[in-house]
Amino acid sequence: MDAFAKKLSQESARPTREEAEEAVRVLLRWAGDDPSREGLLDTPKRVVKAYSELFAGYDADIDDVLGTTFEEVAGYDDIVLVRDIPFFSHCEHHMLPVIGKAHIAYLPSGRVLGLSKIARIVEVFARRLQTQEAMTAQIADAINQGLSPRGVAVFVEAEHMCMAMRGVQKSGSTTLTTTFTGSFKDSAAEQARFMSMVRGR
Ligand SMILES: Nc1nc2c(ncn2[C@@H]2O[C@H](COP(=O)(O)OP(=O)(O)OP(=O)(O)O)[C@@H](O)[C@H]2O)c(=O)[nH]1
Ligand SMILES: [Zn+2]
Predict the structure, then answer these.
(1) Which of the residues 22, 94, 123, 159 is marked catalytic?
(2) Which domain holds residue 114?
């Protein structure tokens, strides 16, 4: 478990599943419906089960994900980019979905990461309550810490349902965030190469 998740679990003892289901019943009543009608009887159970999937990132261990690295890559030391990694997250302000894609690159320094692990890192951080900025920085930081590469580039583009379904009600707008470390931070040319590889088809 990473430091952030550990701190949270120590600070706030988790309610039981029954308490969580009761909280859903309260929200159903607050919305104006009747939790005892047939169609809603199993809803609290379903919602809590769905939450345990949607927020599985609190229990995930980022160190496990970062554990699978390889050295035997015939001296390959250029950019490794995994683009168009889809994710679903939830904003920490409204608990509404954030739907987007992450593009992640690093410049290896001897070691490379299992390719699927890059997408798994996105899952760990997306399946928590987030701001897009924090998620972008956390992904870059995790790869930096776990792999010590020459540089990391993370580009996240997402639509926030809290801006589409409610409030300002602007659907279709996209928020872009980037974090660059190491050579990507120091070199505008490396940043440009990353962006053109992300955008190029
Ligand atoms: N920077 C940032 N802001 C976010 C993110 N997700 C949601 N928000 C914003 O968080 C802000 C919360 O603003 P508040 O004024 O406290 O809440 P609100 O009254 O519900 O705001 P409105 O959405 O403008 O109706 C809003 O501007 C949201 O658009 C995110 O990932 N990053
Ligand atoms: Zn929001």
Answers:
(1) 94
(2) 62-199
